[in-house]
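User: Sequence in, structure out. Go.
Assistant: Echoing your sequence, followed by the structure tokens.
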Amino acid sequence: MNHMFRSLLLIAMLATGGLTHTDAFAQQPTPPPEPSLPNVEIEIERAKDAVEEATDEAERALREAERAREWQGQHPENVVINVGDDSKLAANETAAAVISVFGNAVAEGNVYEAVVAIGGNTRATGSVGEGVVTLIGDTYVDGKVGEAVIAIMGNVELGPNAHVTGDVVSIGGTIKRDPSSVVTGTQQQIAFGEHFGRMEGLRAWFKECLLYGRPLAFDADVSWAWWMAFGFLAVYVVIALLFDSTVQRCVETLEERPGQTALAAILSVLLSPVLIVLLAITIIGIALIPFLGLGLFCAALFGKAVVLGALGRRATRFTGIAPLGHVAFAVFIGGLIAMLIYTVPVLGYIAYNVMGFIGLGAVIYTLIIAIRPANVAPAPTAAPFVAPAAAAAAYSEAGAETAPAAAPQAPPANPSNLEFTTMPRAGFWIRMGALFIDALLIAVLVEWMEPTGHLMLVALAGYGALMWKLKGTTVGGIIFNLRVVRTDARDIEWETAIVRALSCFLSLVPAGLGFFWMLFDSNRQTWHDKIAGTIVVRVPKSQTFV
């Protein structure tokens, strides 16, 4: 009855226009669209991430609560830390952290935060609030650890009392667990192949070589590094055998023109990135960048053979045996000498880089000489030393009788400078005394003109170049009766003075080794002296510089 009444009412409304047919159907509710499958999967993943994050936060809060209850609200502030020595925490002591760099970290007591060792081993037998971390070393844990145990390039061993709440990770090592130990997290052992015995050889190289600043060491665990060194030496010898004339020419360039070689090396290192950027900007030049990189690599490899050949010639040229005079044999002998130098701490690392740097410069400068136009006069070379009297007579005769040459010639030696080349060479301490006075003078001037002192070294170099060109010495040199002269007895030109001043930075960078070099050099020359072709002599007190 009710159904019939509703039907009649609907017909009446349609007839009177109160409700159209379309409106009647529009009033029916439309069902919501069913979500697509990808949206459902995204929502599920988000829900999983939220659950995992909440779980991690809950676990972290639980660990913090357990640590606070264990330490009864106390938070020690003391940190046991040592560099180059072991760090040890006794069984009845507490600390915020135990850290050792180039030493072992031993924690027998309780540690609130972490136990860390870099370049050494860790041993934690007490309670550790957060974690135990070892870089290049082994780890032993026999106590409670709040979060994780991590060893990079080292082994992990868990004793019977070990209880690790988090993960145990060993990268480049092994994990050894006592059956009674407990690990609530995951256990990850990441190895890099069996060739290095799970990186034990590489780890030994880090400890015995890298931490001492040398490429090689007399240690059985780094024998693989010696095999690699001999392999590269074989490559250098083969290069010298295949390209003997080219290697010989580069060796002669290095021996005859060390200053230009060093300058070519500096410019090559500085301009190579600029050239790469310019090639990248041109878009078309991007295709040439790999060839440029390959060329520099080959030049560096070839240059290393050149440096070893120059080093070996120091020993082979005195034998007088023809087969031993070949440049390949000199490269072999130079390689053996270089490998012995590589075992010296700090000096080995410096020598390795300097040899590669100078070798690249020798190759680049030899290429510059080879492609130079034929009508350009060759660069002046150092004149052989001649006795002062004979040189003065030859100079006076040449001035009156010699006709002008077609090509420009190098300026002749100054007879007045020949006397200086025969004077005694200045020693290390007197030169350092003069340098101290000059540095003090420039420091006062720079402080007065520019209080920040950022231009100190630049001002000192400019001052030196100016004084060497105008007076042949500096204020400190005048006080100690020192004079800078060229080995070929020619006057100091602006080019020589500037090159010598800039080369002082090269002597200063490797911990001042270029200055200390005069202690071992027979001619008392520093690196910047050798590059500029100068010596420092002690003149009589009667000599005036004004």
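User: And one key feature?
Assistant: The chain has three domains: 79-190, 220-371, 411-538.
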